[in-house]
Amino acid sequence: MARPLYIILALLGLACSYLLAVLIPSIQANLNTQENQNQHYSSGSGSSMDDLAEKNRKHWDNAAGSYDSQPWQQKLIAQVTEEIQSRLEWIGVDWVKQHRSERAGGDQAAKSVRVLDYACGPGTVSRALTPYATDFRGIDISENMVKEYNARAMNQGFSPAQMYATHGDLLVDQKPSSSISGPDFYNFDLAVVDLGFHHFEDPALASKRLVERLKPGKGVLLIIDFVQHEQDKNPAEHIIAHHGFSKEKTEEMFKKAGCVDVDYVVVDDPLILGDELGGRTRKVFMIRGRRGS
Fold first, then answer.
1. Closest alpha carbon to 193 in 98, 257, 277
2. Dihedral of the CA atoms 248, 94, 193, 44 (nearest 10)?
3. Which of 15, 157, 180, 280 could hold 168 in an S-S bridge, CB 3.0 to 4.6 Å?
4. pTM of the model
5. What angle do CA 219, 221, 226 make, to 5 degrees?
6. Is the pLDDT of residue 292 over 60?
7. CA-closest candidate to residue 247, choices 209, 292, 287
8. Is the pLDDT of residue 75 over 70?
9. Residue 179: pLDDT band by 50, 70, 90 thresholds?
10. Can you tell me whether residue 160 is helix, strand or coil?
């Protein structure tokens, strides 16, 4: 009986050696891999956000000089401008009623209506609202877009105190740069993003940080973007994070960001994109909400 017992003990010894040499290191490696993945997801996939932001920066830097050079782009801008101006009461800001050239005295001369144009591009929204607001600040991730915004503002006779954009990103993990951290970039009556939301990796975070820059109990957040749609072939796919948004998703984001009196509308006429984007049409929504007290 001694010989079989010796063989059994020898086999048990070999099994233990195998466990120590092969299986345990393999299990530990898998655990380390899983831990790294958990850290990546819990951090908000910061590297993914950084990559998308860099792709957008490069794309819009290259596009800044020809942003509205094509007829379809000019028509799109005209549509957006008309929609904004036709819904001033719905947006809910206490606007200046007269054109800036006519504000000679009285309450209108002293009144200030401040607009934050985020992902401002060359200033489409800012120019649409010049008859109704007094001070505009733009922020864009593209330095060339910022230059275009400021050049157009100056050409239209606005001083930097009235209309000025700066380079910045509210979606960075660390504290935003000092250029957009001063009091001049807080306490807005309106913060607006026009057709830029679908480029943001984390639109919920964008909503929260924009709401933080509004006047408490008074400031309004306005988003204009595409209604949720199927993914299709698009040469700009590399800079797109979301294929539109549903009513339920945007309302949820606004409420979690601290907005009240939230309202969502779908624009009647779709936007027509250019041939280089497939000539397709896109339904557009507008959503607004007021920062709670």
1. 257
2. -60
3. 180
4. 0.79
5. 165
6. yes
7. 287
8. yes
9. confident
10. coil
